[in-house]
Amino acid sequence: MGRRITYREALREALREALQGDPRVFLMGEDVGRYGGTYAVSKGLLDEFGPKRIRDTPLSELGFVGAGIGAALGGMRPVVEVMTVNFSLLALDPIVNTAAMLRHMSGGQFSVPVVIRMATGAGRQVAAQHSNSFESWYAHVPGLRVLAPATVEDARGMLALALADPDPVLIFEHAQLYNLEGELPDDTAPALDICSARVRRAGTDVSLITHGGSLPKVLQAAQELAGLGISAEVIDLRVLRPLDDATLMASVRKCRRAVVVDESWRSGSLAAEVMARIMEQAFFDLDAPPARVCSEEVPIPYARHMEEAALPQVPKIVAAARALFGSTP
Amino acid sequence: MNTRAAGPSAGMSIPQVPAPPSGPVPWDKALSLSMLADMLRIRRMEEKCAELYGQQKIRGFLHLYIGEEAVATGALHALQAQDNVVATYREHGHALLRGVRMDAIMAEMYGKQEGCSRGRGGSMHLFDRGRRFYGGNAIVGGGLPLAAGLALADRMLPRQALTACFFGEGAMAEGAFHEAVNLAALWQLPVLFFCENNLYAMGTALARSESQTDLCVKAESYGMTTVRVDGMDVVAVYEAVQRAAQQVRTMGRPVFMELQTYRFRAHSMFDPDLYRDKAEVEAWKTRGPIHTFTARLKAQGSLTEEEFLALDAAAQAEVDAAVAFAEAGSWEPVEDLLRDVHTPEGAV
């Protein structure tokens, strides 16, 4: 029997387990300690583990992300929390130019076992500078592993696997998911990995491919499509780099139609990459051109109705899937 | 002010160049000769690099340290084996004196797989894990947060060591400098910050890029002890770094050092050097770290011309051997292109 738990609690349990299990693990970031974490993920951990291991940093993303990378290089296993993906742009240099490249440019001498977590995504009316989904930018960079837990099970299980990875791992937590409640499978659940995509709903007519905060919307769309007589298969990418082509193509070849749902802006999105791979690898198995539902190409607006209009929504996903079948069904 | 259109002299004032380093060298002969030998090793290696660049044996960017040798020599002699060293893209001398073999450095510049970074890094990315030499960073200021993190790891493990972080004065205009020194001072991390102030950030003179040209004043505002040293004087550098390193080790706090120096060559091999007056370069050459140190040793009877020539010949022989090693090296097979993006399973 599993148990009900929120995504936030799952993340906290994973952090607690990591901190208990390895003295090299510590958490650093803005307001992770005394404040309890911007999204309350680390609430209570300061009392439990003390200020040396739950480390409040100044507001200096370049400095503390770089220092986390240095600490990883020096033998620690830091978990660096960046408040939102928009703020991580201030730390692009150490993440891309150092963490991702150090192993290669040193001829394989150094590994950088750092884990960097951050909130991503829109939907809370926090406007243009707190609402983006830049995980696809990071998924562009060789040397990084990019994860997007969309379920409580992944929120609970991915951190330990990320910490066991000798190379830098980025974990993107969609801000809309923190309050998500779900069933956490017990020990008999199949072991997790951080290299594969998962089928979240089996189907036969269209593959709906997504990740992170869009997964609940896509599952809802699949439900509505079922009512229309279309059997949708839902693929949760989970791992945005490296992409699990095998699982993706198996689903697309079976269903012969695909819609990619991705909250990033359409141009140059992760959806664009997924569609390119479908065209390269499964073109002759398709009955229709692949489609995508992304964010509109506008900074995310504040006003609720405008924000909703800018983001992928269930009706848009349903419409995109139906369009692949022409006038019928 | 368009100095380029008006010619290099117009509008440029030649700064007052201090008197050359002088006075007795308070060291025994062995230490003195070891310092001189190491400065000569860097100088001869880099002169050869410039020549090899002309022959297109070395490609890409090549940033020479010629003129600044007293800084790395004095500093690295004062460090210990357990210390971490973080350097910049002008790091050939630091790598060499940290103990990276000259032949592995030369092979790296050739792009051969016998190089210290297996030919993947080149001149700007020399690394040596065994020597705790963390590169070779070509992002100005990029090494500073890394150094703070290495020191944080040492503090937490715990491990008795300091982290030596070299950077140019140009890096002090970067946010990375301010963020990293703030963290290091706030968390009392054992970092020895070495600002190699050679007066030009590529072609931009200090006064054209810093509102506060007294770099120690900037650093002091973070609550760090600061030390200003004549970086052309290996004696002054070594003595000051020994004291500063001792302070970092015993107090467990960062110290900032400004080492005032000058590069005699252009910024890189692509640089036509139009932004400074030739007379200024010549004036600084009177302060050259090798000939002034040599003269001081000779004046006090600690060095004969024969001994100098022997040290120079040994440096030249090491360079010749390094070039032969690099020439004889091999190219990594292209089939290995995708190697070392991720750590192979079981490697750690």
Descriptive notes:
The complex is a heterodimer of chains A (329) and B (348). Chain A has 329 residues and is of the alpha/beta class. Chain A has 2 domains: 3-184, Thiamin diphosphate (ThDP)-binding fold, Pyr/PP domains (Rossmann fold); 198-323, 3-Layer(aba) Sandwich (Rossmann fold), CATH 3.40.50.920. Chain A is built from 12 helices and 14 strands. In chain A, the strands form 3 sheets. In chain A, strands 3-2-4-5-7-6-12 form a 7-stranded mixed sheet, sandwiched between helices. In chain A, helix 1 packs parallel to helix 7 (152-164), helix 3 (61-73) packs parallel to helix 4 and helix 9 (245-255) packs across helix 10 (270-282). The mean pLDDT of chain A is 96. In chain B, helix 2 crosses helix 13 and helix 5 crosses helix 13 (305-328). Chain B is globular and about 55 Å long. In chain B, a hairpin with a 2-residue loop joins strand 5 and strand 6 (204-205). Chain B has a domain at 73-86 and 136-271: 3-Layer(aba) Sandwich (Rossmann fold), CATH 3.40.50.970. With 348 residues, chain B is an alpha/beta fold. The relative contact order of chain B is 0.18. Chain B has helices at residues 3-6, 29-54, 69-77, 92-98, 102-110, 143-156, 175-186, 206-209, 215-220, 234-251, 278-285, 289-299, 305-328, and strands spanning 84-87, 133-136, 163-168, 191-197, 200-201, 204-205, 225-230, 255-260. Chain B contains 13 helices and 8 strands. Helices cover 44% and strands 11% of the residues of chain B. In chain B, the strands form 2 sheets. A 6-stranded parallel sheet of chain B has the order 2-1-3-4-8-7, sandwiched between helices.
